[in-house]
Design goal:
Length: 107
Amino acid sequence: MSETKPSIKELIFQNIGEASMCWSEIPSGIFDSSRAEKLGDEIYEAYKKLRLELEFTRKYLDPADTSFRSMMDTFATLPPDKKDKLIDLARSLARLAEPVEKAGQGE
């Protein structure tokens, strides 16, 4: 029987649970699972944003294209809230392009 690898989200949540027990004396009381879930969601969202940036760079990077390099250099200097807005825009545009790409592939 083959084991399936846990998803990155599962790994994040499992490790948050494990980290909560990394004390010389294990804390007592009630474990706030909703707070732990919020932390896991925040980490996972940050991971997704980084992954989107990486995928975008891999897909569109052309070493000869200095305009792209210039755009990425500018992106790197933006404050996090501006980066988030651009990432959200890129996701929206990608969703709009999906039906077009699938139609072109005969799906």
